[in-house]
Amino acid sequence: MQAFDWFNAAAIVAIGVFLGLAVDGMVDLVGTPFWPMIIIIPVLFGCWYVFYLFLERLSDWIFTGRFFVTKQKINKRRPLALLFSLPVGIVIGVIGAQFGLGEIVL
Length: 106
Fold this sequence. Notes:
This protein is mostly helical.
């Protein structure tokens, strides 16, 4: 594992911590009158992601002339620490939210 992989894994763990805090916050919404937000937030994010993918394909089509651009895949094995960094970050975020990490971060 190279130094860049360690920096990348640390950044992914940080993103996982924030995702864990968000998951804990959405679980807290279950008992409130704002429970429909649990459905609305992921649906809005999914729509935004589909729109982003469409814009990316559209820009590829404008600049290359092809709507489906074939991208070369590099089958390089990723280090194990890099693969487990997001799930570990989410677990740290959810557990940390139970101990008040959300108030400290925010």
